[in-house]
Design goal:
globular, Solute-binding_3/MltF_N, alpha/beta, D-Maltodextrin-Binding Protein, domain 2, Amino acid ABC transporter substrate-binding protein, signal, 2 domains, 5-stranded mixed beta sheet
Length: about 280
């Protein structure tokens, strides 16, 4: 009996010592993993420079901001802007197309580094992403077919079928308008224009730059109502944690504005200098 008890005590002591060692090793492993995770956190600007490219998310059907030309080449104000920003950072700019309605979610899932896609800065969007300072002032207008004498002001849209791009601030503006017969939403603004041209909708609500572009490109077909629905600053979108990248791109934007590059891009795509004071 004595021998058994002594053996039991000895075995129990050995077991306790063994468990203590296991606990110490486990805690050390956790600490090492934690340190490793902290060390693995990469500076967002350094990551872009290390890859040699800045990836930009945009919707390629929103002229003159971003669209495909007759040779299917991606062109537009935001494309020239993205190229200029990449040059300032010392990297190439690569564009990744995405439906505008899912742009913020795609940024959050790291499909691309930033959004440069005529995105209006809104309080709702700022809950999910960060923005640069506004690089151009936008705003919503209504476009109708030339010769439509029944619609001369925004109030005349009551009882009418109005189109917009799904998920855009044009969508928000059209939804807030009282008395419309229906708001018809499209994945691409070009499809909304097509339906306006054949009379399926009475008006299209969109950014002023886009509306003026269509009117200039197709003289005699469309008309912009004089009354503007809203004014909206447009900015570059960033993931909230990408502080270093945001700071570097903001610096690049400031330089592009002061050195006249943004004025040249504006003249090219809008026909006027949006930065002239």
């Amino acid at each position: 009996m004595y021998k058994y008890s002594q053996y039991y005590k000895w075995g129990n002591a050995k077991l306790k010592k063994f468990m203590s060692i296991i606990l110490i090793v486990t805690m050390a492993s956790v600490l090492l993993v934690g340190c490793g995770q902290k060390q693995a956190k990469v500076n967002s600007l350094e990551a872009v420079k290390a890859s040699g490219k800045l990836t930009v998310g945009l919707d390629d059907s929103y002229p003159p901001m971003e669209f495909r030309d007759s040779k299917n080449k991606l062109v537009g104000f935001d494309v020239d802007l993205g190229d200029a920003v990449g040059k300032k950072l010392g990297v190439k700019t690569e564009y990744i197309t995405n439906d505008f309605n899912g742009m913020v979610l795609a940024l959050g899932s790291s499909k691309f580094n930033v959004i440069i896609s005529a995105m209006s800065i809104t309080d709702a969007r700022k809950k999910s992403i960060n923005f640069s300072d506004s690089y151009v002032m936008g705003g919503q207008v209504a476009i109708i077919k030339q010769g439509n004498t029944k619609i001369t002001k925004i109030d005349d849209l009551k009882g009418k079928l109005v189109a917009c791009q799904l998920g855009s601030t044009g969508d928000t503006a059209a939804t807030a308008m009282k008395g419309l017969k229906e708001v018809k939403r499209y994945d691409k603004i070009t499809d909304a224009y097509q339906d306006l041209s054949i009379g399926r909708v009475d008006a299209v609500v969109m950014d002023a730059q886009v509306g003026q572009y269509y009117v200039a490109k197709k003289p005699g077909q469309f008309k912009v109502l004089n009354e503007q629905i809203s004014k909206e600053p447009i900015g570059i979108g960033f993931k909230k944690q990408d502080k270093e990248l945001q700071e570097a791109i903001q610096k690049a934007l400031n330089e592009l504005k002061s050195d006249g590059t943004l004025s040249k891009i504006s003249q090219k795509w809008f026909g006027f200098d949006a930065y002239k004071k």
